[in-house]
Here is the input.
Amino acid sequence: MQISSRFTIALHIFTCVDVFKDQRKVTSDFLAGSINTNPVIIRKILTQLKNAGLITVARGTGGISLTKELSDITFYDVYEAIEPVENGDLFHFHESPNPECPVGRNIHALLDDRLKAIQRAMEDEMKRYTLLDLRSGIADLLAKETE
Amino acid sequence: MQISSRFTIALHIFTCVDVFKDQRKVTSDFLAGSINTNPVIIRKILTQLKNAGLITVARGTGGISLTKELSDITFYDVYEAIEPVENGDLFHFHESPNPECPVGRNIHALLDDRLKAIQRAMEDEMKRYTLLDLRSGIADLLAKETE
DNA sequence: TTTGTTGTAACCATTGACATTATAACATGA
DNA sequence: TCATGTTATAATGTCAATGGTTACAACAAA
Here is the structure.
């Protein structure tokens, strides 16, 4: 199991928007070129980010704008916008365990809290990183390239 | 994206083995009945747990034994045995970003450490729970049933 | 040698990820 | 208004993973 590439693609998009926003129009075609995928893939992800209220996208003219400060958008916000997790549960149970078995009828009560804690540990760590970290991070990497 | 039900099935199996080990022979058929799935699904998971060195399975006669103490098997051990995570990376990148784009050629350097930290947060929390916790947990729940 | 069990191969159905093409909707500048 | 560039979305396709099922070989013990 892996978290889909859509999540890292979304972070890639945000980084490109920030890096190139003053140099050129950042279109889905341009982004597709940087990420090496199809523009439609990009647009679907943009739609998800738009539905989550993180960005606005200009239709005819093209161009992406953030609705919040970089420091107000965490990795978790992006993850939540992108990953369609059923009921918000990271862990999946097999349907309908046997209610006549003492273990079967108690398996959810037994595991739910512990699994939630594990999920929360991941999500809390995601909340520690913001898009502002990406701005400074990519600036450092680009500066290092020209040394 | 969700972590497959094989993981919670494996925890279910361990719980059943512990609860029923003195009362009856715990076979893949019995386990399939408690979990409400097919015995072959159970056997495949048992094979993974066996390959990870967590259990031994008696072939002709049936029966499952742990190779370690309950307190020495963490949720992470089970997760690692069950989930085939490519390269051990939880997060998936799109293949071959454009090396001619300053962002494309730096995206891994930009994200890798942060994503690893998120993954580690989840795995560290998984290491905090052992099968011994499940023994006491299920005992409490069963005691509560008879009140 | 019979019986009960595990190990595994060979399928099948369903779903999700990712890709691709085509076309409609829309905004802007000429 | 119209041409142009762009986004939005539907329709399709491919591929891999999940979960299920049947069948049968391998094996251990009574």
The CA atoms of residues 73 and 130 of chain B lie 5 Å apart. DSSP finds six helices and two strands in chain B. The two ends of chain B are 39 Å apart (CA to CA). The mean pLDDT of chain B is 95.
